[in-house]
Amino acid sequence: MKLQGNAFVYGDHVDTDVIIPARYLNTADAKELAKHCMEDIDAQFVSRVKPGDVIVAGNNFGCGSSREHAPIAIKAAGVSCVVARSFARIFYRNAINTGLPIVVSDIPVKAGDQVAVDLSAGSIENLTTGEKRSFAPFPAFLQGIIEKGGLMPAMKGGAL
């Protein structure tokens, strides 16, 4: 599974309240949530993000509440992958459950750099600078969950 897009770069401790502010949690509609993704940390995110783009962040991405709305909003906004130095544990699991690929890496990236991620090979490259990193690829069953669009579609399809 290969992904590539422009990087949107954020710092440490990006919490679920800035990924999708609580004032929009009156809906579970992914398209509606996507309209407000990242708006409290980056008001222009939704107008600039293109399908396939990548979020790159520091430590503890997705900290805060345990809402699945956060990875749903990111995925519905068109982001193909989130790369961070570390993830909050519940966000990590929610991302897998919703089919949002996530990668733990410390690769240096600046906003607007082109990033390529190969989930099967466990490699990430900043195509703008040529910098490369390796990471432990997801086991085949987790890749299957992501490819099916999340845990529930994978279960319905008999993949698990």
Characteristic key phrases:
160 residues, seven-stranded mixed sheet, 7 helices
Write the layout of secondary structure elements.
Elements: E1 2-9, H1 16-19, H2 30-34, H3 45-48, E2 54-57, H4 69-76, E3 81-84, H5 89-98, E4 102-104, E5 114-118, E6 123-126, E7 132-134, H6 140-147, H7 151-156
Parallel strand pairs: 1-2, 2-3, 3-4
Antiparallel strand pairs: 1-5, 5-6, 6-7
Helix pairs in contact: 4-5
What would your notes on this structure say?
The chain is built from 7 helices and 7 strands, in the order βαααβαβαββββαα. It has a 7-stranded mixed β-sheet, covered by helices on one side. Helix content is 28%, strand content 19%. The protein is α/β, with parallel strands linked by helices and 160 residues long.
Write a brief structural summary.
The protein has helices spanning 16-19, 30-34, 45-48, 69-76, 89-98, 140-147, 151-156; strands at 2-9, 54-57, 81-84, 102-104, 114-118, 123-126, 132-134.
> Strand order within the widest sheet?
4-3-2-1-5-6-7
Low-confidence parts: none
Query: Judging from the principal axes of the Cα atoms, what is the shape?
Result: globular
Mean pLDDT: 94
Give me the secondary-structure category: alpha/beta
What value does the Rg take, in angstroms? 15 Å
The H-and-E topology, N to C, reads as EHHHEHEHEEEEHH
The fraction of residues in strands falls at 15-25%
Helix coverage percent? 25-40%
Number of helices: 7
Q: What is the first-to-last residue Cα distance?
A: 19 Å
β-strand number: 7
**Main sheet?**
7 strands, mixed
